[in-house]
Task: structure prediction
Amino acid sequence: MDRSIRKVAEKLNKSYQLLARWSAQYDWVHRANEYDAEMDRLQLLQDEKERKAMGKRHAKSAMLLQSKALERLKTIKPEDLEPKEVIKWFVEAVKIERLSRGETTDKAEVAHSGEIKERHEHDITERVERYAEVYAKLARSGGNDEGTNEGNDN
Result:
């Protein structure tokens, strides 16, 4: 945003000297900076609120998709699967389990000189809040999706 005493003077049809005096007297520069900082702070709060709502929407959608996938999975007979399909499903299931436990799914090699220049703090509460609904649903269902007998051979 372009602000200047000259532009305000022209817009209000007032003298530059008068507005310069008012600017100094009422600390307009500082007040304008404070206003901008407050608007930025409010925008950040709004963005965070919208990100949390988005995360909840995505979690609900993912849970619905998981439910549908599990319904379909229950109808498939293991003997109808090709060996390559079994391997593919197994690999995907391992990836999903690792991700759900916060583990990496890709092998990564990191080379380091030993010198630490920056330190980053990671707040676990953000991750917990993001998945709180999923954890609560799992706890209510005893770890099974919608009361299914996942993991049981019966």
About this structure: Residues 28-75 form the longest helix (48 residues). The helical segments are 5-12, 16-25, 28-75, 83-100, 124-130, 132-140.
